Amino acid sequence: MGIIMGLDISKSSTGCAIIDENMDVLFCGRLVNKGIDDITLIRKRLIDYIRRKITEFNVTDVVIEDVFGGINFETNRLLIILNECAVDLRLQNPELNYDIFKYENTKWKAGLLNRSGKDIRIAGRHKEAVQEALGELYDINYLIEIKAPSDMFDALGIAVHHYFEVKEKGTVVTTVDKNQYIRNFRLGLISFYFLSEGEFQYILEHLSLEVEHRIVEYDRSIQRTTKMFYKEFMKSILCCIHIDSFTDLGLDLMKFNIADEVKGWEDFYCIAVVKQIERTQTIFKEFKDRRKVVWLTNKNGYYYLT
Predict the structure, then answer these.
(1) Beta strands 266-274 and 213-217, pairing class
(2) How far apart are CA 269 and CA 204, in angstroms?
(3) Biggest alpha carbon distance in the chain?
(4) CA angle 254, 258, 263 (to 5 degrees)
(5) SS3 breakdown of the chain: % helix, strand, coil, rounded to 5?
(6) Spatial CB neighbours of 238, under 8 Å, sequence gap ≥ 6
(7) Do 189 and 248 share a domain, yes or no?
(8) In what order do the strands lie in the sheet with 4-9?
(9) Number of structural domains, the chain?
(10) Is the per-residue pLDDT at 10 higher than 70?
């Protein structure tokens, strides 16, 4: 099991708790937005806070209390914006490899209370019930003595609930194992090489011995074929897509500026390689130096692939 970060997010402050694979607490604190009303500034502060904690503790699972519908529309709107900070951070920093989970308020609290091993009444006393449940699992006297705010207890509670959810469902995956796969697929993480049969064989012959590859048939689009491949295989394995004819690329020719590169080609390959792996193989640098590198862009000039 990886490192779990629990977040109880609000406009005024955000509670944060981080636990390890043994459910030991690594960190418990909060980000306070005292005197700050600008939601854009609050969002930037929260994204930076989450980024620093994920990097410091090598977090793999970020767990957030989902927004529940209330009568105050403005409050709900702000919470939805802030609750997406972990998603925004992941899009801005593709090198950060973590999953995001959301639980409803009533679900995680009920789960925490059930796992405390004690019959705790929750109706009308949510704050006290969470503290009592955590008190059955941890020594929280210090937090009580310093009058720690409820968002710190809630952040720890939701992290613990996720810990048991993962453990009891038998989906425990170590941090090392998680990092062997592409969990958050984005085209920007992959480099693509369109190669003739001879060029394809040349690259395979000059790869390091420890680098494996698999050949798959083109399926509707480059993105779909590559994404389905890395759902099954580790990112250290090269996805080698066999393409019968350039006309098969269809939508890809319309979406990306690759028509001139592959026009008229028959029986060729597209190697998809994770950039992290690409940097370890000198053959790819040699190949780029030997011939023109074609940037795959959309019509607006945004770089999707390299």
Answers:
(1) unpaired
(2) 12
(3) 75
(4) 95
(5) 45, 20, 35
(6) 207, 211, 212, 213, 214, 271, 272, 273, 277
(7) yes
(8) 25-32, 13-19, 4-9, 61-65, 99-103
(9) 2
(10) yes
Which tokens sit at 141? 């006297």
Burial class (CB in 10 A: 0-12, 13-18, 19+), 180: middle
Same-domain status, 169 and 189? no
Interatomic CA distance for residues 194 and 196, integer angstroms: 7
Q: Is the pLDDT at 178 greater than 80, yes or no?
A: no
pLDDT over threshold 60, residue 176: no
10 and 109 housed in the same domain: yes
Domain of residue 53, residue span: 4-177
Structure tokens at 155: 């952040």
pLDDT tens profile 27-78:
999 999 888 888 889 889 999 999 999 999 989 899 998 765 555 556 667 7
pLDDT digits (tens, 9 = 90+) for 257-300: 788 788 899 999 999 998 888 888 988 888 766 554 444 444 44
Burial class (CB in 10 A: 0-12, 13-18, 19+), 226: buried
Q: Are 205 and 235 in contact (CB under 8 A)?
A: no
